[in-house]
Amino acid sequence: MVSVLEILKAILFGIVEGITEWLPISSTGHMILLNEFVTLNVSQEFWDMFLVVIQLGAILAVVLLFWNKIFPFRFGHGPVVQKDIFVLWFKILVSCVPAAVVGLAFDDELDALFYNPWCVAVALIVFGVAFLVIENRNGNAEPKITDLGDITYRTAFMIGIFQLIAAVFPGTSRSGATIVGALLIGVSRTAAAEYTFVLAIPVMLGASLLKVLKFGFHFTGAEVAILFMGMLSAFLVSVLVIRFLMGYIRKHDFKIFGWYRIVLGAAVLVYFAMAA
User: Chain-wide mean pLDDT for the chain?
Assistant: First the structure.
């Protein structure tokens, strides 16, 4: 029987996941910090799986909010196929290739090498600086690509390379890396964010499936309750955060997130240096 306290902890982790998955500030960095102060009473194997699979709740928020942009069929007097959406999904698959190849081949090795507070802190700071540099460089320049449909296969693959960086180095932030990459090659903030959100669907589904298969399907009742509540809270918070971010970037740049990452990265370095 799962305790109320463990359920509340799972909800808290879901809230943090829902906020930090979509804002380009690294969900991994925040989860590592939160785990220092709030620890679920579960096995290490379940915890490793929970950190990834909780993202499924966040994915459902993207599916809900972007349904009209990602579902290629329309039903009226008869089914209508929207070819532009099919093309978008082919581009998404192109973006997935680099991270999928490396992740399937070296998932455990990369976790062992880089999943630690020091690497996470450095990645937070480096990409925080990248946001500031790119936004200052772009200034008020007109982006070359302002709509999802204008993203080419070449651009999709280049964004996938940046996503690979996030897959290798925890703390980079998947959304942060892909948005930085998109901005760097001339994609508008709005189109970059939308593409990042849609790209998250196959990426997180694949990562979650891999973790569940490694964990196995021998969940206890308590583990099912903890995972469900974490996913539910991640879903509800993600809906709010995605709506906020899409409204925010129509009028503002990403500099505030860059500064936040730098401050958080420095705080992580100081905290774990003192704890060592």
Answer: 89
First to last CA, the chain: 36
Instruction: Output the DSSP codes for 25-78.
Output: S-HHHHHHHHHHH---SS-HHHHHHHHHHTHHHHHHHHHHHTHHHH--EEESSS
Residue type, 181: G
Q: What is the pLDDT of residues 224-275, one digit of tens each?
A: 999 999 999 999 999 999 999 999 998 889 999 999 999 999 988 998 888 8
Phi, psi of 41 (to 5 degrees): -85, 70
Among 164, 162, 203, residue whose Cα is nearest residue 185: 162
User: What are the structure tokens assigned to 172, written together?
Assistant: 């980079």
Strand partners, 81: 73
pTM (predicted TM-score): 0.89
The residues with which 80 forms a beta bridge, in sequence order, are 74
Please answer whether residues 36 and 29 qualify as being in contact, where contact means their C-beta atoms are separated by less than 8 angstroms: no
Q: Can you give the residue ranges of every domain in the chain? A: 4-275
Query: What confidence score (pLDDT) does residue 27 get?
Result: 87
Return the closest-CA partner of residue 14 out of 229, 205, 243: 229
Return the residue matching tokens 């463990």.
6
For 216, left (φ over 0), alpha (ψ -120 to 50), or beta?
Answer: left
> Angle CA(194)–CA(102)–CA(177) in degrees, nearest 5?
30
Q: Which residue do the tokens 């090659």 mark? A: 185
Residue count (the chain): 276
Q: Strand, coil or helix: what is 188?
A: coil
For 67-101, b where at least 16 C-beta lie within 10 A, e where not — what string?
eebbeeeeeeeeeeeeeebeebeebbebbbebbbe
